């Protein structure tokens, strides 16, 4: 066995691999939907927002502005009994859910903020059956610390992705892929993200929205490119080679 340790992936390598994976998943889903005779074709009715209370789906940017949360950030957000507060904190940690980017909880975990990612003080108080007023106070104190910390982490991730995003945006223009589904949105999403990075923004919601828009654009674009275009725009995953359309297929010749 080779005793050498495997070289750790760089942020650029991880990003490239994720884009290729996302492209493969999108293509697979499209094929599955196209072949599924039972899929619904009618337009689903959006869920009514009037029946949902603010406590069940709080916005991470609610309360004081996310750009400069104060010690009282979250005032007015955490209401009700201890169980209601637990649900509100959980909703914040799990958002954005199923969006293709890290939720606040995962983001905080990955950047080494375990206690904030778990809202330990809040849930410990609930587990100890502390009174609702204490739980609400701890939730507000948690949010005042978690929000700017998560914003810093989101900014760092977005900053790490900028080199690859700028390269992709440039290549899309050079290769004339602006008309390809999703690809036209990549340069615009890159510019929006770059403005926030250059400004060292502390607005968690704006950073999250920018990362989401960039991820969506890149994934959609990648799913509509062939292997050669994909490699030219987004690079190749670690350990693979760039497809060469001019290389003849010699597979099977040895068996002849």
UniProtKB/TrEMBL annotation:
The chain crosses the membrane at residues 16-35. Residues 43-76, 235-250 have a biased composition (Low complexity). The keyword Transmembrane applies. Keywords: Membrane, Transmembrane, Transmembrane helix. Residues 41-78, 234-256 are annotated as: Disordered. It comes from the Bacteria. This is Uncharacterized protein. It comes from Bifidobacterium thermophilum.
């Amino acid at each position: 066995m080779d005793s050498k340790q495997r070289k750790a992936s760089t942020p650029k390598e991880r990003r490239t691999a994720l884009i290729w994976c996302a492209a493969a998943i999108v293509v697979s889903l499209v094929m599955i939907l196209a072949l599924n005779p039972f899929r619904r074709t009618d337009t689903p009715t959006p869920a009514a927002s009037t029946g949902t209370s603010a406590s069940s789906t709080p916005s991470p940017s609610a309360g004081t502005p996310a750009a400069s949360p104060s010690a009282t950030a979250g005032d007015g957000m955490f209401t009700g009994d201890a169980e209601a507060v637990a649900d509100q904190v959980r909703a914040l940690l799990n958002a954005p859910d199923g969006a293709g980017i890290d939720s606040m909880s995962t983001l905080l975990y990955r950047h080494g903020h375990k206690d904030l990612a778990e809202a330990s003080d809040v849930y410990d108080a609930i587990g100890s059956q502390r009174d609702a007023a204490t739980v609400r106070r701890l939730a507000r104190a948690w949010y005042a610390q978690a929000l700017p910390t998560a914003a810093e982490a989101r900014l760092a991730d977005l900053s790490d992705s900028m080199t690859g995003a700028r390269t992709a945006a440039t290549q899309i223009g050079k290769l004339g892929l602006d008309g390809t589904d999703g690809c036209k949105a990549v340069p615009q999403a890159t510019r929006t993200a770059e403005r926030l990075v250059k400004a060292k923004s502390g607005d968690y919601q704006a950073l999250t929205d920018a990362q989401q828009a960039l991820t969506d654009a890149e994934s959609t674009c990648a799913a509509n490119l062939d292997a050669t275009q994909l490699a030219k725009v987004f690079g190749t995953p670690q350990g693979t080679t760039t497809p060469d359309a001019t290389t003849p297929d010699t597979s099977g010749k040895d068996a002849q």
